[in-house]
Amino acid sequence: MKITRILNNSAVISENQDHEEIIALGKGIAYGKKVGDEFDKQKIYKIFTPLSDSQRKLLLETIHETDPIFFQISQKIVDRLKHEENIELADSVYITLTDHLATSVERAKKGLYLSNKFIWEVKNYYPKEYRYGLWALKLLDAQFDLNFPEDEAGFIAVHIISGELGNDISDFSKSVDFIKSITKIVRYYFHIDIDYQSLNYNRFAVHLKFFWKAMMYKKDQSSFGDLSREILNVIKNSDIEAYKCALKIKEYISEKYNYELNNEEIMYLAIHINKIVHGEEK
């Protein structure tokens, strides 16, 4: 591929085989090059194909104003999520995450740190994403000789969550409200204190997270596969209360989100509720 424009030593504009404009990032990819030269594809760690003029403008501004090291750190985070969790983040979130990291480091060098009002929710409702936030924090601390508080891991996790949802950060707070509301229904129905650190609750929260995404953006009646064995176990345990609680949740979702749960979705909720209440392992 040939360079049509050089943005900096680590970013160029070119065209793919379909003659679409691409923006390629790679360490030293444009060093010693000029427009019209071929560049080393092996150095590329990220390619963007902007879908709109606004996305292109945002990307070019971010590249112009941001040290390439922050793109590289973001790519390490994205690569690890893809490799270990098979999670693909939306390109738009990759850009906002890079900008966030650069801004956070700039503030930290001045001794300014932000508190995260969602830190409890992130830790308890999105523990996997929070763990990756902590890992990313170690990268920043080592690279820039800083000592970020855990609040920053929460901010990074929010960007990861937004990337999973495929939408902007405001969706994170909406999904948190959804998980919080459903959990509250379970707590009040059974008059119990939930162990938010338990494996069963973690699975429940993960299920709600992906259910929220499907409910809000796909609007389809998703199939969860053959639940005959799990349904049989629920029946054997005579856990009718878990099923009744799931029906309460169905009513809430119908009124709040105008979404009707099908029988399979209700039973799947009941299975998770049963495990939380009785502490059963899958």
* Largest pleated sheet: 4 strands, antiparallel
Order of helices and strands: EEEEHHHHHHHHHHH
CATH domain class of the largest domain: Mainly Alpha
Average pLDDT figure: 84
- State the fourth-level CATH superfamily of the largest domain: PRD domain
Strand elements, count:
4
Number of domains: 3
Summarize the amount of helix as a percent range.
55-70%
CATH topology of the largest domain: PTS-regulatory domain, PRD
- Bin the strand percentage: 5-15%
Compute the gyration radius: what is it? 23 Å
Instruction: Based on the coordinates given, report the CATH architecture of the largest domain.
Output: Orthogonal Bundle
Low-confidence stretches: 220-226
Total helical segments: 11
Distance between the termini: 51 Å
Broad shape: elongated
Task: Give an overview in words.
The chain is an alpha+beta fold. Helices cover 62% and strands 7% of the residues. The chain contains 11 helices and 4 strands. Strand 1 and strand 2 form a beta hairpin. Helix 7 (170-190) packs antiparallel against helix 10 (240-257). The radius of gyration is 23 Å and the shape is elongated.
Which helices and strands occur, and which strands form pairs?
Layout: E1 5-8, E2 11-15, E3 21-26, E4 44-48, H1 53-65, H2 68-85, H3 91-109, H4 119-125, H5 127-144, H6 150-165, H7 170-190, H8 199-217, H9 228-236, H10 240-257, H11 263-278
Antiparallel strand pairs: 1-2, 2-3, 3-4
Helix pairs in contact: 1-3, 2-3, 3-6, 4-5, 5-6, 7-8, 7-10, 8-11, 10-11
